[in-house]
Amino acid sequence: MKQRFYIGAYAGIGEPGITCVQMDDDGTLRRAADYRGLENPSWLAGNPNGKCLYAVSELPEGGEIKALGIRDDGTLVEMGSLPVSGGAACHIGVSRKGDLLAVSNYMSGVVDLYRADADGALRERLSSLAHEGSGPNRARQEGPHAHFAIFHPTLENRMLCVDLGSDKVRIYDIDGETGKAAGTGGIIFPPGSGPRHLAFHPYRPELLYAVCELGMCVYTVRLCGTEGTILDQKPCAPEHFRGAGAAAAVKTDAEGRFLYTSLRAYNGRSEEDCVACFRLDPATGIPENPSFFRGIAPEPRDIALSGRYLLAACQSGGKLLSFELDGESGLPMRAADSLDIPGASCICAI
Q1: How far apart are CA 297 and CA 292, in angstroms?
Q2: Count of C-beta atoms within a 10 Å radius of residue 242
Q3: 218, 247 in Cβ contact below 8 A?
């Protein structure tokens, strides 16, 4: 059975910024269609109805979020757009019902909330949540940097917003009628760690995994109400990694057996770009010490899991890669296929 993915990329107007890719049962990748009408569509998210794709235009200023209808052949048709209020829109979170969207604006530290109609079309921007704070890393934490927002998997309209600049995850409850967001709590990470993305355990919603870009590590967090307690920390970089690097994505498999993170090596040694595989303790959900696999094209920015395959979008390497995973170890048995996608930054399964 074929699996459909949309790949976002850093690309100019007129270039294929969004690519529809079909993956066959053997991991073979096939380019099915592309969309060229948006500059730097670096992040994509699907509506739960399966008929609409959202994309942000990541620009220093003047960006937008666009809704795109999905045709049967994978091509996209425009359904309208709305402006974002901050700089460098970099992530879209979608509620379980698909009626609320959250756009994280990295440069301004603002999270915009939007309402969508039943067909996925954008209706209005409801509010903008401006974060405050900074961290000890003067180059990257001079102010707030909203990087990710996710809706709770079981609690209606509870949203968690990651701020890399202030080392915090802020938790909000959103009124479904008015769209107003009330801050209810949060999670504080060690100074300078720079949290980037989150992933919930697939069937234990009290467990959360946070990948920290600056600290190159992953934290296990237990949520209790609107507060979180850090239970564990593990590295995302190999033991002898030296110099600059940045952790990027964090994903779990559907069975809750493995956790994966990606690492971009900015130390001049592209052979150290890697994906880490952590086995999750079945009793506690805490990751064991990781195993690492390299052979990744430069700058693996996003990863995705589909059955027994892992996909990696490698930005500066300009590649989408598929790997067949071993069911026992979680590590790749073979590289299945690759596609050239310049600036690849995001993988969205539909």
Answers
A1: 14
A2: 11
A3: yes
Q: Are 188 and 170 spatial neighbours (Cβ–Cβ below 8 Å)?
A: no
Total domains present in the chain: 1
CA angle 33, 37, 43 (to 5 degrees): 80
C-alpha to C-alpha distances, 311 to 296, 301, 336, 344, nearest whole angstrom: 10, 11, 10, 12
How far is the C-alpha of 58 from the C-alpha of 291, rounded, in Å? 33
Closest CA to 233 of 245, 243, 247: 247
Q: Please measure the distance between the N-terminal and C-terminal CA atoms of the chain and give it in whole angstroms.
A: 13
On whether the CB atoms of residues 219 and 232 are closer than 8 A, the answer is yes
Is the residue at 149 inside a domain? Answer: yes
Question: What angle is formed at CA 309 by the lines to CA 303 and CA 315, rounded to 5 degrees?
Answer: 30
Q: Which secondary structure element, helix H or strand E, spans residue 255, and what is its range?
A: none
pLDDT of residue 178: 86
- Identify the residue whose tokens are 């609409």: 52
Residue 107: domain span: 38-188
Within-domain flag for 284: no
- DSSP H or E segment with residue 247: strand 245-252
| pTM attached to this predicted model | 0.97
Q: What is the mean pLDDT of the chain?
A: 96
In this structure, are residues 61 and 110 in contact, taking their beta carbons and an 8 Å threshold? no
Quote the pLDDT of residue 1: 61
How many other C-beta atoms lie within 10 A of the C-beta of residue 329?
A: 12
For 271, phi then psi, to 5°, come to -70, -10
Q: Which residues pair with 207 in a beta bridge?
A: 222
Q: How far apart are CA 24 and CA 68, in angstroms?
A: 24
Residue 252 maps to a domain: no
What's 50's domain CATH number? Answer: 2.130.10.10
Q: Are 120 and 51 in contact (CB under 8 A)?
A: yes
Name the band, by pLDDT with cuts 50, 70 and 90, for residue 295.
Answer: confident
Does residue 237 fall inside a structural domain?
Answer: no
